[in-house]
UniProtKB/TrEMBL annotation:
InterPro entries: HAD-like_hydrolase_sf, HAD-like_sf, HAD-SF_hydro_IA, HAD_sf, PGP-like_dom2. Keywords: Hydrolase. The keyword Metal-binding does not apply. This is HAD family hydrolase. It is an enzyme of class 3 (hydrolase). It comes from Streptomyces massasporeus. The keyword Chloroplast does not apply. GO terms for molecular function: hydrolase activity. The lineage of its organism: Bacteria, Bacillati, Actinomycetota, Actinomycetes, Kitasatosporales. Its EC number is 3.-.-.-.
Length: 221
């Protein structure tokens, strides 16, 4: 892409930090406590949506919406138990540091905020490489709407055609595609390659370490 003004935008959960299955268990238990039997595989496919959208996706539009806030709060409390030990995915910090050294503006685009985002950043341990964070609090609509990615591009000061978005869910690929950026998928969030490709991934890698090892011949070269 040439060296002047280019942005590498990263989803965080399931892309840089190995949290998707922790989210699944926390959501499953929050639903159970509210009297809903939601299978874990269905929860897994919905991870990556903002909380209210995830609840709507899994319980349907005819649900008792008075329960939404309680279910989301339940998930937040249950997931919060893991904050001191969230595991980074292989190569996550090294990948961000390398891109930063190569002149990329690295921006995180995540639905996490506050203490959760702090815990994720501690896990990645590459703060010196991260220019900005676009959190769900900053936009009206989360993924798969393009807003989170567009907001990240604004923070980076880079047009869509000079940006690459890396994520692990179909929601990420749809958001990136709608924002007009090149999309790279990673398999470490547990979503199948075919699903990521159908949703807009230009290429798919195993995890951040694999992407780092292949930097010289891909979109992040």
């Amino acid at each position: 892409m040439g060296s002047a003004g280019r942005a590498a935008v990263f989803d965080v959960d399931g892309t840089l930090v190995d949290t998707n299955h922790l989210h699944v268990v926390a959501w499953w238990e929050a639903f159970r406590q509210a009297g809903h039997d939601v299978p874990m595989h269905a929860v897994h496919r919905a991870v990556g949506l903002p909380s209210t959208d995830l609840v709507a996706h899994l319980l349907g539009e005819d649900r008792d919406t008075d329960q939404d806030a309680g279910i989301s709060a339940g998930h937040k409390a249950l997931y919060g138990q893991y904050f001191d030990r969230l595991p980074a995915l292989p190569g996550a910090g090294d990948l961000l540091r390398r891109l930063h050294r190569d002149g990329w503006t690295v921006v995180l685009a995540t639905s996490a905020g506050g203490a959760e985002l702090g815990a994720l950043r501690r896990a990645i341990d590459a703060d010196e490489a991260i220019t900005a964070t676009a959190s769900a609090d900053d936009v009206d609509e989360g993924k798969p709407a393009p807003e989170p990615v567009e907001h990240a591009l604004e923070l980076a000061g880079v047009p869509a055609e000079r940006a690459v978005f890396v994520g692990d869910t179909v929601w990420d690929m749809r958001a990136g595609s709608r924002a007009g950026v090149h999309c790279l998928g990673v398999l470490c969030g547990g979503i199948p390659r075919a699903d990521l490709e159908e949703s807009g991934a230009d290429a798919v890698y195993a995890d951040p370490a694999h992407l780092l090892s292949a930097l010289d011949d891909g979109l992040l070269a």
